[in-house]
Design goal:
The chain is α/β, with parallel strands linked by helices. Helices cover 32% and strands 24% of the residues. A twelve-stranded mixed sheet has the order 9-8-19-18-17-10-16-15-11-14-12-13. It has a six-stranded antiparallel β-barrel with strand order 1-2-5-4-3-7.
């Protein structure tokens, strides 16, 4: 093993510092090291264990160069050739733990004793690191990436632990959707049923490989459910998402139709009840017909009918409700048929609900409708298979309503986060705005995959959501490059920094390259200029 140096100063079971023998042969930040520690046993004896640590910070100093050294003095010492042998380099290291095997199971434990000063520190071997991150088949290993600075060490997450719910958080363009897609690929290979709330259509092309060709495995594993009101998306794996008005509550209909007045809601409620008595699967037009019938009642009435009429709604208010509902009909949200919730539980299959192009209010209602019916099916034990639910742009749906969150979607997402695990609904929220996600929802996500986050409010939100997210991990977040992530929680043995593995399927969440767009704009302008120079007569 490669020796770096020796422990100096004061150490404890969580941190130690070591000096580096050869400054030109020093570890990089986040490198893994190991040291021998004498650990007391129950019988009073001592046992030597190999403890792993991670270098969190590298510092250096020279006795001739300190805060009192002026620039002129530094220059003169450089001219005199002051010996570089006096340079000292120190590595500040966090203790991760040691591998403990008992009863055929392996886990990571923290030592109770500190490493002793003077103990040699070695570069951790690939063998011990791979053992640390290897999961048994019973843990359902999902291969998501490799160890940062050790590409040969693969790092899986435990699919078994996803029942504790997960949050994938990062700034825009730093790989959160790409990472989520990698987990979806791995889950599909394990036979999982997946439901994706896809606000921008980022996962709609997962039937293709990265080059756009049909993928041999995933080509028949994804169905895109496309509401009629969404932006155009045409492919062989697209199915219309049928949403009937009869599946909406009065509150949901009111939100979609922008009906806010109490009296108008009462009128709508009565019309819905009347439509329901006439037809089990009634449509929006059936409700409108009921309201038109109220307006079109004949003028010749008996005295008894006139008395009854006084209790009926004002026809002006009825007309306004009709106007709202007809405006809703023009937006093509509803169609004949029922929401195909049972199809979402198909084994080894992903159902992508394509919402791109639909307004935030409409997305809120649709997501609430879909997740509420999914939860009801599992709550009533109508489906045995578990369902992995991914919510992209989660801050749109999972924020408190007074902060712009979904009035209908937030409550059911919160319930899934609180109770879903016991019924087999496992949640993953994906967002670039952690501070906008309801704290009750985020705190129920025990697994965290955090890519680059710079905003201090977002960082504090992440730390408040997880006791495992320490100050040193928080300090690492701004330095992460695209595709690099910190994984914390039960789905990994210890907090770990990884580089996301290459996706097998096409990624749809790319931000347009401004340089390419501007180049295309220049080319278009040049073509137009030439065309205008030679007008056709």
């Amino acid at each position: 093993m490669k020796e770096y140096g020796s422990i100096i100063g004061q150490s404890d079971p969580t941190w130690f510092e070591f000096n580096i023998s050869d400054p030109k042969n020093r570890p990089v930040s986040y490198e893994y090291v190991e040291v021998e520690v004498e650990e007391p046993q129950q019988d009073g004896s001592m046992r030597s264990i190999r403890v792993l640590g991670q270098v969190k910070k590298i510092t250096s100093r020279h006795p001739f160069y300190d805060e009192r050294t002026t620039p002129d003095a530094a220059r003169k010492m450089g001219e005199l050739g002051v010996d570089d042998d006096l340079i000292q380099v120190f590595a500040h290291t966090k203790v991760l733990g040691y591998l403990h095997n008992e009863g055929g199971r392996s886990d990571v434990r923290r030592p109770r004793s500190p490493p002793m000063p003077g103990s040699p520190v070695f570069r951790a071997s690939d063998e011990i690191l791979q053992r640390l991150f290897t999961l048994s088949e019973g843990e359902i290993p999902l291969m998501v990436g490799s160890l940062l600075h050790r590409e040969g060490i693969s790092v899986p997450v435990s699919g078994k632990e996803l029942h504790r719910h997960t949050a994938i958080l990062a700034m825009t363009r730093y790989g959160k959707s790409y990472f989520a897609g990698r987990i979806m690929e791995q889950l599909l290979k394990q036979g999982a049923s997946i439901l994706v709330i896809d606000a921008h259509g980022d996962y709609a092309n997962m039937t293709q490989d990265p080059d756009g060709a049909e993928h041999e495995f995933f080509r028949d594993k994804v169905t895109v459910y496309h509401p009629e009101a969404a932006e155009a998306f045409d492919a062989n794996h697209v199915k219309p998402l049928h949403i009937g008005a009869s599946q909406c509550s009065v509150g949901e209909l009111s939100r979609l139709a922008h009906i806010t007045g109490s009296l108008q809601r009462i009128i709508l409620n009565r019309a819905v009840k009347e439509a329901k008595t006439r037809k089990k699967l009634y449509g929006l037009q059936d409700i409108i017909d009921v309201l038109y019938a109220q307006i079109d009642e004949g003028e010749e009435e008996t005295p008894e009918a006139k008395k009854e009429k006084k209790a009926k709604p004002d026809k002006v208010r009825v007309a306004r409700v009709i106007e709202h509902l007809e405006g809703l009909a023009e937006r093509n949200i509803f169609s004949d048929g029922e929401l195909p919730v049972k199809e979402f539980f198909a084994p080894m299959h992903m159902s992508d609900v394509f919402l791109s192009g639909i307004s935030d209010d409409e997305q809120d209602v649709l997501v609430g409708m879909i997740l509420r019916r999914v939860f009801q099916i599992k709550y009533r034990h109508e489906e045995k298979l578990p369902l992995f639910v991914f919510v992209e742009e989660a801050h749109r749906f999972a924020a408190p309503p007074d902060e712009g969150g979904g009035r209908f979607s937030r409550d059911i997402i919160a319930r899934i986060a609180a109770e879903g695990a016991k019924f087999g609904v496992f949640l993953t929220v994906i967002s670039q705005r952690p501070r906008r996600i309801d704290p009750d929802i985020l705190s129920n996500c025990s697994n965290l995959a955090i890519l680059r986050v710079v905003n201090s409010t977002d960082q504090n939100t992440i730390q408040a959501a997880s006791e495992s997210f320490s100050e040193d991990l928080l300090a690492d977040l701004p330095a992460l490059e695209q595709g690099e992530a910190v994984l914390v929680g039960p789905f990994v043995p210890v907090p770990v920094m990884i580089k996301t593995a290459r996706r097998e399927t096409r990624h749809g969440g790319r931000t347009p390259e401004i340089a390419d767009l501007l180049r295309q704009a220049r080319e278009d302008a040049e073509i137009k200029k030439k065309r205008d120079a030679f007008p056709l007569h």
